[in-house]
């Protein structure tokens, strides 16, 4: 095992199509025009010394270490800032440049701590460069002016500054800084936050976080780009300082959001030392956010449950048992329940946090072992409308582009998504494209960072009233049709013309005009018109959307409205355009692909399809049910009705993540055998009879599929702490139930998936290990996958326009509940917080707060930071208020990361008409001053996470 080392080419790649040939140290090299001499040399295998350049940011030319000589040109130009030219003859190691380099390095080293641990441990590019240029002695000593020692000859050194240790994950030591500004440029160019600056002049220069505050209090978002860029150890991970340098590494995939960033897990033995974003990762190209980069400490958290546990009644204390006892108990209970109540009385829930292979096994267990289709997934509560809407219009249930496509977009539309918080690495990509000149339309009730942040400003922010997406999207279509902005050639060639005409006459109806929609949505008609014109005529236009579109009673209608807009304007089927759902969890796409829904086998094939059933019946040796099974809400309803009695929940906390907590609790409480498998005793486990320990992404092999349909490898870097990876647990359970499963590695599960699922036919671990990742469909027609879909035609044949009549949600504001609550994520936390709350990320977001507009706060006598009661017709909770005009009057907003808040106590049972995706984004509420937490919240806070138990519904006797 060794460290995965990536080459740094010194400057970014040029995108030019024109090629240039030159000679470097006698070697001929051909590269795209615009390439730097430094990069051309590296591509020819020649490493030019450098300090202030890397291939993630534009060259700056400050350190002068990279100079070269060029035949026929005077002087010694910097190779990082000098572009190649046809016929150049470049020399990188002449005596002259070698001598200059040694002199430069000597000056740098004279002001560098002699006892720098980073140098000693081999974590310092500067030390490596000193050796490379042949520096053997430093003639100037360290007694003169320097940044290194607090006192010189007993006097306070005016240049010395204390290290900044405020960030929980990295330290900044000014004494080691050479002011190369790589960190400043990485923060600006890669991350797009512009939090860092160079303060002072000349010898006084220092790196300062914005407003000269400590890193922790600054605008810094802790993405780690600065630490990664720093060549000196001035910025360094605290984990490396504490644990020492890594000994080996493996490339794996982040287990947080749907961007699916690739990381090198850098290890000492079985201990993670740091996670370094992988430049060859095709989703992130070497960038990361605070979650994937730093928030992995939960894997070792003391709260992890490492032994299976059983209890007869949920009021009993837990009893640790062996794995064998647990499997035998579950199998006996599930078989008893089926014997007593019928085959359909049990079911399973797959997890979008687990691998494709694990998800596949859970649905297989339900279909083959339970003999029914009662399997559903947490994707139900986020992106099921995407599946439905895109399948109806385009024929396939996935986003149309790869992330790189955004580099070709001229207009970017963000609807109901907050990428800089929820999909941060892609958020940075969007910001970069905006800085390059793309135009931006944001449709969101809240003023997200993309609406206005350093160097980014939306051209139009359509701050619509929650629940009116469909009205606004259809009004955009009204403008496009009524003003003759339809791409008729595209529509005639690629779409069903009759259906288009029907749709066009529908959108032209007066109730869909911007003026009419202004009344329901609050968005000025002129702004709707201007945004529609920009989308239709601004060049390549791409739509990205999130849960602010799907989690509505008309979620599926809104997805279809988006698909209609792209078809009508011809913005589909090439780079730079498309319809792109930003998936919430790491494997939402994969869990849907793997047949987690009660009506679909893997690959979105309906259970009633005889040919598909025949494939699995032949392989699994059982007769399969042709009737769709129960969705999660139906399972809970059936449990309350007494007909559904047992459930296997892998890696989900439905009590916290599903709407109407009391109803979920009532359903769980009515069951006789609830099996929960997770890393921690989650809220759902309060109602469990069996708890099975889960494994983290570091403890198993597998694959995740990200928002761009990219199948990425997850690689095991440590043994499962509980003894088994999640796929092994499901297999053992299946064996206990009498099934003949004998997988010895997840690659065999993928082979079965590929053999039975046309869109995965070409996928194998061998392929993924060879090419890195592929986007499905990956089969005979597309052996290396499909970055952009619907290029020459829609998957379903002709694109299908769908009518999208706006129907207001039944969730209405009124005198009792006059405000609309909408919810979302924050950068540092992730979903129900089970992982991120167990890391230092909680320092940024220790509790959920309620954003409320100053007018609404004033009307209620609420001050910033006050406790407020948030009440709806389903429940109430208490949290602190933050007064801000990010939300419009009449709208309040909160996150749902902390169980002590339980935002879903107030959300309702309304859901999408087509898929049952809950309407999280619209709840009528009242906000009033409060003295503090409610009783149940106080109980919660008083107990440790392991011992607490909140009762939302009494269990059945
Ligand atoms: S902290 Fe590191 S990257 Fe930033 S200027 Fe100093 S040496 Fe360069
Ligand atoms: S953007 Fe998403 S996938 Fe990437 S590091 Fe952050 S949480 Fe992980
Ligand atoms: S690397 Fe070229 S000037 Fe610093």
UniProtKB/TrEMBL annotation:
EC number(s) on file: 1.17.1.9
Signal peptide: none
Stated name of the protein: Formate dehydrogenase subunit alpha
Start and end residues of each 4Fe-4S Mo/W bis-MGD-type domain: 247-303
Coiled-coil residue spans: none
Start and end residues of each 4Fe-4S ferredoxin-type domain: 168-199, 212-240
Gene3D superfamilies: 2.40.40.20, 3.10.20.740, 3.30.70.20, 3.40.50.740, ADC-like domains, Dimethylsulfoxide Reductase, domain 2
Keyword annotations from UniProtKB, A to Z: 2Fe-2S, 4Fe-4S, Iron, Iron-sulfur, Metal-binding, Oxidoreductase, Repeat
Residue intervals of the 4Fe-4S His(Cys)3-ligated-type domain: 96-134
Gene for this chain: fdhF
InterPro entries in the record: 2Fe-2S_ferredoxin-like_sf, 2Fe-2S_ferredoxin-type, 4Fe4S_Fe-S-bd, 4Fe4S_Fe_S_CS, Asp_de-COase-like_dom_sf, Formate_Dh-H_N, Formate_DH_asu, MoPterin_dinucl-bd_dom
Family from the record: Belongs to the complex I 75 kDa subunit family.
Domain named 2Fe-2S ferredoxin-type: residues: 18-96
First-tier enzyme category under EC: oxidoreductase
One Gene Ontology MF term: formate dehydrogenase (NAD+) activity
Superkingdom: Bacteria
Organism: Chelativorans composti
Record's keyword annotation contains Transferase: no
